Amino acid sequence: MTQTHDDARDLDAADPLASFRERFFADDDLVAYLDGNSLGRLPRATAVRLAAFVRDEWGGRLIRGWSEGWVDLPVTVGDELGAVLLGAAAGQTVIADSTSVNLYKLLHAAAGVRPGRDEIVIDATNFPTDRYLVDAVAEARGMTVRWLEPDLVDNVTADVLAGALGDRTAVVVLSQVDYRSGTLIDLPGLTSQIQEAGAVVVWDLCHSAGVVPIELDEASVDFAVGCTYKYINGGPGAPAYMYVAERHLAASVQPIPGWWSAGDLFAMSDTYEASPTIRRMLSGTPAVAGMIAVQEGVRLIAEAGIEAVRVKSESLTAYALDLVDAAGLEVATPRDPALRGSHLTVRHDGARAITAQLIERGVVPDFREPDLIRLGLSPLTTSFTEVADAVRVLREIIES
């Protein structure tokens, strides 16, 4: 169907989440910000909370802040994030470090719970960090990498995965939403398939947590990792999170032990003994300000409700798809809303130059090599009118 700006205004007027846009800082000079899948907007509540932290906690309490609550933040914020966004019971999620460091830890831990197996499986189109780390961990542990070669849009399916699984498979690493195409793959189904082969899975949730309802416990997922600066709006460089299923905690040995992962944090023991809890995945002193920002982002999503967020996400991508189709542009994202995350990818030979022109005209999307323009649609901050304006400018640039 042909969409109009009147349709966009009607959709915005009927949007039950529309009021959340006012709870974020916005750049009035922008026509549309469609890059929340790389860096989410700043919640106003986060600015208030951080100012109070600097003034009252850091400034007012100094070192006493650790015994007054900071020490517990990696787990308390982790539990909040796990409950709201991951379908994870308490004691399995912790906030720490960056996604890269956390994935490195989880890969070693995952390989360690499957001794005697020497292969790690990952798709050759996964995010670069995931691929680099799989290579590095495989080399360090004397393992072999099995590379999947999935289609850009269909991505990793049961059939694609089946050919790589065997009795040597220790770990499979998958991203629930492909960072290029926005394809949402079958987390429960693929998890079951991997475990039936005797392996464990590490899920990268960077492009799904915060916009897709996830049930890690229900799906019996083994390990998961993700960032917090995209749809969770934790801010640039915000600390990431790790999920380790309770059944694997005792056997999970991570490669960066530090005093924060010790069983007795302040014992300063001569020998290291890992905590029996999810704290065993920590290493050094955590970033308190970063965890506070993550907590505020999680609480906003909790207030909105992840199911409502998903409904709007599907509506936004469907609306954008109609507009892009009307413009005659090629789409590299599944057409079934159940098979896509919260960004729509346009394919064009001139994608790099087009992206630069879009930014000059106040529309901020995202370019990915070699020919992809990602339109990131963040349900709590993106309006339908923004999408309509963005695609109008995109169409004008291409037609000119």
Notes on the protein architecture:
The chain has 400 residues and is an alpha/beta fold. The chain has 2 domains: 5-42 and 305-399, Aspartate Aminotransferase, domain 1 (Alpha-Beta Complex); 69-302, Aspartate Aminotransferase, domain 2, CATH 3.40.640. It is 39% helix and 14% strand. The protein contains 13 helices and 13 strands. Strands 2-8-7-6-5-3-4 form a 7-stranded mixed sheet, sandwiched between helices. A 4-stranded antiparallel sheet has the order 9-10-13-12, with helices on one face. Helix 8 links the parallel strand 5 and strand 6. It is globular. The model has no long low-confidence stretch (mean pLDDT 97).
List the helices and strands and how they pair.
Blueprint: H1 5-14, E1 32-33, H2 44-61, H3 64-67, H4 73-86, E2 93-96, H5 99-112, E3 119-123, H6 128-141, E4 144-148, H7 158-162, E5 169-175, H8 187-196, E6 200-204, E7 223-226, E8 240-244, H9 246-249, H10 288-304, H11 306-326, E9 330-331, E10 343-347, H12 351-360, E11 363-364, E12 366-368, E13 372-376, H13 384-399
Parallel strand pairs: 1-11, 3-4, 3-5, 5-6, 6-7
Antiparallel strand pairs: 2-8, 7-8, 9-10, 10-13, 12-13
